[in-house]
Amino acid sequence: MYNISGYGLTVSLIASNTFPVGLLLNEWPDDQEAIAFPDIEIGDGQMGVNGQLITWSKAAPIKMTLSAIPDSPQDLQLAVLLLANRVGVNKIGARDVIQCVVVQGNLNVGSFVNGVIVSGPTFNGVQNTGRMTTKKYNFLFESPYAI
Question: Which of 48, 55, 93, 115 is most buried, by the most CB atoms less than 10 A from its CB?
Answer without folding.
Answer: 115
